[in-house]
Specification:
The protein is an alpha+beta fold. The chain contains 3 helices and 4 strands. It has a domain at 10-15 and 25-71.
Length: 84
C-alpha cells in the first residue's frame, strides 16, 4: 500500500446495505486515522467491520485495507489485544 498518513483526520462508515439485529455504530469521525483504525480493529464487533470503510484524504479503504494498515510496521499506536 502506498504512503499512508496515520495522522490525517479520518471518517469511519458502517456496513452499507446490510441490516443487522442491532447497529453497534453508525458513523464516527476521528482526529487521526490511526485512532480510527484502532477502533475498527480492536473495538468494533467483527460483523460491523465487514463492509465498513475508512475515508482519509478523500480515499476510501475497505475492511481488508483497514486490517493491513493496522498490521503495518508503520502503524504508530500501541496495539491492544485485538479480538480473534
Amino acid at each position: 500500500m502506498a504512503e499512508f498518513d496515520y495522522k490525517a483526520a479520518a471518517e469511519l462508515f458502517p456496513t452499507l446495505g446490510r441490516r443487522q439485529k442491532r447497529e453497534p455504530f453508525r458513523y464516527a469521525r476521528f482526529a487521526h486515522a490511526a485512532e480510527a483504525i484502532r477502533f475498527a480493529i480492536e473495538d468494533l464487533p467483527r460483523e460491523s467491520l465487514v463492509g465498513a470503510f475508512l475515508e482519509v484524504d478523500e480515499q476510501r479503504y475497505g475492511s481488508e485495507d483497514i486490517r493491513r494498515l493496522y498490521q503495518s510496521t508503520d502503524y504508530p499506536l500501541t496495539r491492544r489485544t485485538a479480538r480473534p
